[in-house]
Design brief:
alpha/beta, Spore Coat Polysaccharide Biosynthesis Protein SpsA, Chain A, three-stranded mixed β-sheet, 3 helices
Length: 148
């Protein structure tokens, strides 16, 4: 299936005090890990929604700076929807270190032409790891997928 991916890495990290994207787990930054996951599951193109003044060149991805800084993930999602050349966009927050390729492949497999897919764990939705179709589907048409 043809899809684009955006890694949402532009948060203020005000509670943490430093950018989450550069935190390392097992010798790999969270951003490098999410980029690797998106490549592994076959994203046709990968964007990084990040800070305009940061150097992301090592990742080989187009960087999308928010038009409205410090406004949460929505400006990054808006930029990615405008930039994507695929009819589907995988939105993936940088701070999901336990995300697995098998889960993302399942997310992509659940997509149908009239629905996006948003994961659900018990009664909680995880909107920053979702697949959004921006053709005929509307945001209100999202269906939830229970996590195993």
């Amino acid at each position: 299936m043809n899809f684009s991916a955006v890694i949402l890495a532009g948060g203020k990290s005000s509670r943490m005090g430093r950018a989450k994207a550069w935190l390392e787990i097992s010798g790999q930054t969270l951003l490098a890990r999410q980029n690797q996951l998106a490549r592994k599951i076959g994203a046709a193109e990968i964007f990084i929604s990040g800070h305009a003044k940061k150097n992301y060149s090592e990742f080989g991805c187009r960087v999308l700076a928010d038009k409205f800084p410090d406004a949460g993930p929505l400006p990054g999602i808006e930029r990615a929807l405008a930039a994507a050349t695929s009819p589907l966009l995988l939105m993936l927050a940088v701070d999901l270190p336990e995300m697995k390729a098998i889960f993302l492949r399942r997310l992509v497999a659940e997509y149908s032409e009239n629905f996006g897919v948003i994961p659900r764990h018990e009664k909680n939705l995880e909107p920053l790891a979702e697949l959004f179709g921006f053709g005929p589907a509307k945001f209100s048409d999202l269906k939830s997928m229970a996590l195993p």
